[in-house]
Amino acid sequence: MEEQRMSISDLQESEREEPQEREQGQVSEAEAHGYDVSKYERPSVTVDVVMMSLRQKDLQVLLVKRRAWPHEGMWAIPGGFVNMDESLEDAAKRELWEETQVENVYLEQLYTFGDPGRDPRTRVITVVYFALLDSERLQVKAASDAVDVDWFPVYDLPPLAFDHKKILEYTLNRLRGKLDYTTIAFNLLPEQFTLRELQRVYEMILHKRIDKRNFRKKVLSTGILEDTGAKKMEGTHRPARLYRFNPAAEHEL
């Protein structure tokens, strides 16, 4: 969540005190080469982590409730400010843990948002990461930086802080585009699944119904699925075949 633990003035003071020796060294080296480090203003950088999962037969996103100004009490994408001594990915993983207690998930860098007025505190540029995963593996819990944490249907969201509605809309559009050339949808499924369950994932992401016959014909023709030989009951219908993802055929998509 994009929440500073101290005021902007306190943060600037802290940055002057803690890395003083290192910063002086950097300044000296820059000055030795004739570069003025104060020539340009330094915008703040944050990371936001969009985590989506298949829950209650719906595509849902993990949100946190903000603890402090700005947008206190509003729901937001987990994230926060990047420290001077950490990479963007390390910052994303740290913020995710600090706000939701989630760790050890694969994150993919998605896009950078930098409209000048997106944050009322200061000039803030955010780098967005996202992950699709099975929520059953997670035990989410609000930590020190958040009042609450919960899952919400991506097509029925509460009012969001900052420009996070725009970020989620962009994420969904990118996700839909990836369906045609990646195996990203399989991240939302258990190891074994039916064709009906796979089609349901595609329909939730695309937010529309798909013709059953055409979908199955296309998916099976790629060789991306491997028949496990097992079956599963689905309602009152006859048992459905269980498939699993075939990594060896991933290039076929």
From TrEMBL:
Superkingdom of source: Bacteria
Compositionally biased residues, Basic and acidic residues: 13-35
Record InterPro entries: NUDIX_hydrolase-like_dom_sf, NUDIX_hydrolase_dom, WH-like_DNA-bd_sf, WH_DNA-bd_sf, WHD_NrtR
The keyword Iron is annotated on this UniProt entry: no
Keywords: Hydrolase
Positions of the Nudix hydrolase domain: 44-175
Any Pfam family matching the protein: NUDIX
Segments of this protein annotated with the region Disordered: 1-35
Keyword Hydrolase: yes
Signal sequence region: none
Extent of Polar residues compositional bias: 1-11
Gene Ontology MF: a single term: hydrolase activity
Protein name: NUDIX hydrolase
Organism: Ktedonospora formicarum
Phylogenetic classification of the source organism: Bacteria, Bacillati, Chloroflexota, Ktedonobacteria, Ktedonobacterales
